[in-house]
Amino acid sequence: MAQEPQQYGSYDPRAVRTGRPYDVGYGGYGGYGMMPPAAPGPAPAAPGPLPPVPPEATYAPGRPIPLTQERITLTIYSTLSSAVLPLVGGGFGLVSLYGVVWNLVSNDDGASIVNAIILAIVAIFSIPAAAFMLSIRTVLDATGIHERAIGREQSFPWPASRTGLYVRIALGTGGAKAVTNRAFACVVLPDGRDLELTGLSWTGPWVPALEAKGVAECNRIWQWAVARGYTRETHEYVALAETLGVHQAVRESQERRFGLR
User: pTM, whole model, 2 decimals?
Assistant: First the structure.
């Protein structure tokens, strides 16, 4: 029996190959295979104010350094261990200054005057020394490493190798050696001298833990500087310029144990 001719629409094999559903259809706007244009929607809203730019994060040892941070500012209180000495020294100086006033006001005998003089000498040395230490800033940025204090600034280039950052160990002595072992993060200068990075020191009884903490922080600083394009790894090695070579020997051992060289 003959088939009835197709009454609705027409078959377009090209439309099937394209796989676009709006190429074939029944009826509709302007004939078969066409979709009506979309109805006009509401006008787009006017752009609102841009969100505020978040402030630059403050550098904190032990935490990842954001790559958006353009510079790192180190102070004597970047770590608690570094801040203890100037805070204790400044506090001792203030107490000595109070003792001077008390001896001069409360007593007028010779012994009180001598005590006041001694305490005044202690205050004269300890208070300015603490103020100077608290004023030190070390800034790490695109132009190098800058150490700033009261009315003075020194600038040094970035090291050309990760080995240019190391952790110097200072062992405690006497009965307090269990709590006075210290580790300092240092940068090796082109002439072989080393410069302590302000505020990056750690104190405690277990030297390997202090050293590991310092090496980890040096790694973070180096990776941040390389990612920012401030320096790059050239494998240039600068040995410490010292007579006995004690710190250089400890440094080489550190490089082997932590796989830095």
Answer: 0.67
